[in-house]
Specification:
mainly beta
């Protein structure tokens, strides 16, 4: 089982990034997927989630209206579109397969001018 995130980087406040997470070794389309993040020196926190077929999405209050989670089960990929980024969005972002112990290695997002 493997989850591999990509798409992180350095972006200025107000900018956008799109994260991707590709799953392998399991039936991707059967599991809900989530994104979490861990800011420097803080606990890991929930960011967004999506049901297995993509019919429902969920967001933390801190990102609602700015971030959008989506998935393409044909590509075994979940995405996180991040807009209007703020310095407080700086964190390592992880994808997670719901109700499992499957986590990616994380991708760093830094929002700074």
């Amino acid at each position: 089982v493997q989850l591999v995130e990509s798409g992180g980087g350095l972006v200025q406040p107000g900018g956008s990034l799109r994260l991707s997470c590709v799953g392998s070794g399991f039936t991707f389309g059967s599991l809900a997927m989530s994104w979490y993040r861990q800011p420097p020196g803080k606990e890991r926190e929930y960011v967004a989630g999506i049901t297995n077929e993509g019919g429902r999405t969920f967001y933390s209050d801190s990102v609602k209206g700015r971030f959008a989670i989506s998935r393409d089960n044909a590509k075994d990929t979940v995405y996180l579109q991040m807009n209007s980024l703020k310095p407080e969005d700086t964190a390592v972002y992880y994808c997670h397969a719901a109700a499992t112990s499957f986590w990616g290695q994380g991708t760093q997002v830094t929002v700074s001018s």
